[in-house]
Amino acid sequence: MQIFAYIINKDGKADDTALELALAAKKLDSDAQVTAIVAGSGIDNVCQEISAAYNEIWKIDNAVLAYPDGEIMGKILPKLLPENAVLLLAHEYLAMDMAPGLAIRTDSAYIADVTGIEGMDGTTGKFVRQEFSGMVSTHNTCDLSNGAIITVRPGVFASEETPSVGGSVVDKSGDIEIPETNRKYLETVEAEVGDVDISTSEVLVSVGRGIEEEDNIDMVKDLAEAMGVDYSCSRPIVDAKWMEKSRQVGTSGKTVKPKVYMALGISGAFQHLGGIKGSPFMIAINKNPKAPIFQVADIGVEGDILDIIPELTEKVQELKG
Amino acid sequence: MEPVIIPPASYTILGIPLILLYIIIPIIGVALFTFIIAQRMQPLVKAAPDNRFDQLGLRLFNMLKYAVAQYKQPRYMLAGVLHIVIFAGFCILSIRSITLVVVGLKSGYTLPLFDTWIGTIYNVLKDIAATAVLVAVVVAAIRRGIYKPERYKVPEKYGKDHTSEAVFVLAMIGGLMVADMFFEGSDLAAHMNKGLETHYVLFPLTGTWFVTYILTLCSDATLQFCHVFFYTVHEIIFFSFLNFLPLGKHFHVITSMFNVFFMKLNKGSVKPVKWGVSDDQLDDLESFGVKNFEDFTWKHILDFYSCADCGRCADQCPANHVGRPLAPRFITIKCRDFCFDKYPLREESVDKGPLIGSILEEDEIWSCTTCGACEEECPLLIEYIDKIVDLRRGMVDEGMVPQSLQKPLNALGKRGNPYGKTEKKRGDWTKPLTKDEGYECKILSGKKADSAEILFFADSITSYDDRIQEIGQSSFRILKACGVDFGILGPAEKDSGNEVRRFGEEMLFQDLKEKNTKAILDANVKRIITADPHALNALKKDYDNLPPVEHVSEFLYRMIQEGKIRFNPLENQSDIYVYHDPCYLGRHNLVYDAPRTVLDNIPGLKRVEMERSRDRSFCCGGGGLMLFYEPVEETRMGKERVQMAADAGATVIVTACPFCMVNIEDGIKTSGNEGKIRAIDLTELVDQQIVK
Amino acid sequence: MDILVCVKRVPDTSENEIEVNSEGSDIERDDLVYSINEWDNYAVEEAIQIVDKVGGSVTVMAIGDDESEEIIRREMAMGANNGILLSDDAFEKSDGRGLATILKAAVDKGNYDLILTGAQSDSGAAQTGAMLAAMLDRPFASLVNLIEVKDDSTLKIGREIDGGNQEMHEIKLPCVLSIQTGINEPRYVGIRGIRKVASVEIPTMGASDLGIDSASIGDAGAKTKTLDYFVPELGEGAEMLEGDTDEVVEKLVEILKSKGGIK
After folding, report:
1. Mind listing the pLDDT tens digit for each residue in C11-22?
2. Which residues in chain C touch residue A203, judged by CB atoms under 8 angstroms apart?
3. Cα–Cα distance measured from residue B367 to residue B360, given in angstroms and rounded to the nearest whole number
4. Any B CB within 8 A of A214 CB
5. Which end of chain A, N or C, is less surrounded by CB atoms within 10 Å?
6. CATH architecture of B418-561
7. pTM (predicted TM-score)
């Protein structure tokens, strides 16, 4: 069957999730013909970049689409897509703006933020989702033959494999009309730049709720200093105003690509892990042995960071002499 | 007898009798004073009601103890002695003052009986008193003006420095003393110069004595001048001083007796939302708490008038000490000034809007741990906790609650504990005892309730916090070792609500109180024991109709007195122990000696005291909801307290309150004293040492 | 401005342990404490703040059973002017589209300039607001963390996007917005406030009041189905270090050194 994938791109580059959607489509139907939809302005590079993974790439190049806009694309896509189309998107900011409404406009089923795809049974697709902040999972189904919009959790279908499908680019720019919308994009306000850009840090000492009190933050800074590396944190620490926003690792914070990541008192919610790319060597210390972080970490310690951190700092200082 | 010197009442200048002056000045003085007092009464009349006319005998006794006998003054020795001297002097000189006013109208006037030897003795006393007052005033002025002690300082954000007002008043008092010395001395000197009898005993080294002998060197004309001049000066200063009093901190001179008479008698309890409105009528009230100035009760406003700006409260306040935006002294001074601005003497009253957001800040009011150090210290018995609670009630009513407190408050409403943990697990802290140690635990609630003589009220932190459950377990073992027939409420127990009430969520407190009261009365116990002083306080002071409640240390004290328990000697006798008085056990419930006696009965235990102990104990940081609040502060109370213990030479801090344990153990870690000092609860120590 | 806020009663996840029930058909709901969906609470606070500034009214609406009334009442205690409960057995087992259909029918019975929903709730699908907007053909924005009223017909809004950045838009009324946490600091609702609204009438509307075709809602109208609830098998996970603090710290330092964690 034909499966469509909407490719997010900004500033002439495809998002990391671009290749993941192709793999997700194959998981749904290994024989699927996967068509990428790339909309934007000056996107030839993007189309080329992803052509290895897709059978066909529909290019929609228009100056108005330079900045990705969910309201505009949400009205263009129903006219562009064939009836009963199956469309995959990455579950992130643009999709949350556009995809559910798109499902209504195309009269399709909508399943959001799938963390697993278990293939098809006839025309019924079977998916895995999470509820209650990841505490439980569910199996969900829908009839794909009546159209479906599926959003996929970023990172779940990432792979080291380099595909080599090599599809051709079809210019569909003329097939669309820019619709009137009642929402107008003004500008993007950048987050305040802190004194350190953790997205370039090689090693990060990261702290979460387990630090318990603001006064204890100092011990984390001491450890980072002893190790000669940068420190970062998860969202609750920023919400409590114990660290600047620029040090937040997560989907609503910074994306980091370190080689070594120490998760101290961090539970491992996906919104945090979503900000960590590139599979660093992860060491996790947490009081709760059932914390999800231990699923993704390489080395784990069940313990109280308030006891371990000061000792660790001392040992590192001794080592450095 | 013909007067040697013409007295003021008979004196004329250019044919005008000065007696006119001495009629007019007092009339104006008293009239003005009456007017000012009437103006000052206005806000009291508009204020909320307050129930202060009960137990008149006790009130009279307190007035004698605290106001007349100046009982609290010596807690700050130098300032205390100076003040006692000035106050005692004032009392003695009051007779003289009355006499002097009348003397201007009728020369040679004395009060009945004072024309006898009584008068002669009185004059000696008067001279000694006046001299003492003059010396005290000079020392005080030097102290205020030159040495400038720390607690009088006014931080910039609170406005101008108050030293000039203080020194001005001291000067006035000094002036009164000196003027009288010259008035009296000039008459005596005139007599002495003419070799006449004065019928006056000049006590050596008194001011009057000095002045008289100096004046004997002067001419008659000079003496005559001095006599009338200094009398007039005295009159003017006297009536100016009288009218100056209600304008500032010296209002306390007039209001202090009343303020002490009307003091709060039931320490540790919190006033109802509104006096005269019972708990079931609360739902009908339009507004809760203090939002506008007149929401304060008349006694609270009287408190604002009575503040002597001495700074002792702020000096003892732990929140102030650690740099939180709270100093009790300035709450009072700001409210007083607000009142004076709102009710000016010469104009109509001005509408000034709500207090929070204008003169008071939200964080200022949330910072208070209700430790009671301020109230303990205040020589005028000014109250703070009730005002803070009322202000918090007002903020809660308006939804102005910090986010950090909303979560535990919501959890308390839903689950009866601030952690949001399920009620079912409230009794689980006893599981290690029943499962691993073979004890039997009676649950006094539920469908298959056991019955017992005594209820052990655990309260929330002991029930749910991993570390503090150990205190509950130690208490359990001790009670078993003493053969006590007791049980716990388990899932039916709710938070005692001590902090819920003190943080202004009155209706949630009423809800918890209702549920706990029912569970306790259904359990039909004779007594209640608890290891949590906050629970002790709530059950004893804020709940009604419960069986008697005591703290586990009081129970242990009795057991020791009755010879029913013995202790094994300590294994490690090189430790130095220090006992930290929890605010809610010590200051609020007057239990100071019981825990100390328990410790002193453990063989081999060496104990020291911290400088700030007993009713001067320094709050660990607070309990209940205070553990969830995120204050803006420079350091932490627990850390400071650990340092105090270290300074006293201790290696072990003994606490008797679960919240003290949390804060002290935290303080040990953050002050870098791990390994040098450790903390242990009284129950844990007893559990360790008791002969079972 | 007349604002409608769609709210949902959900299990409180902060201290509750969410577990799958024995049949695997739902989570174990005995003993759960429920409260208003956190995102929805921020939305209600925002609505109240807007109305405080520009006038108007705030209506809170929930789909559920009698127990959802508790949530509506709490938000009214907070300051919402009106509450509406949408309740009918026919609504049960509706999927996201079904719920949006019900809401749309209720919206059509009223006259709202602005509709707010929380950005997501316990199911994590984050779909209700967007679907409702499409059904009403109104402009929409998700993850809104800032609202400024420019005039009677325009709002300036900010959306939270990656990296902590904020996308600014101008959007025309009437519109639908889904609200992200942290947009404001919700005020406290005390027991007293809740008691004050304890006896306020909350009108209830069912399928026939709303004129909804039963084929479009409930199980019949659902395009997606939930088969079961489960907890996935845990994979191997991390290699856990054993020993007391000293031993563990020694090992950690060795590992950090070897992996280049110490500079």
Report:
1. 987 656 788 888
2. 260-261, 263
3. 12
4. yes
5. C
6. 3-Layer(aba) Sandwich (3.40)
7. 0.86
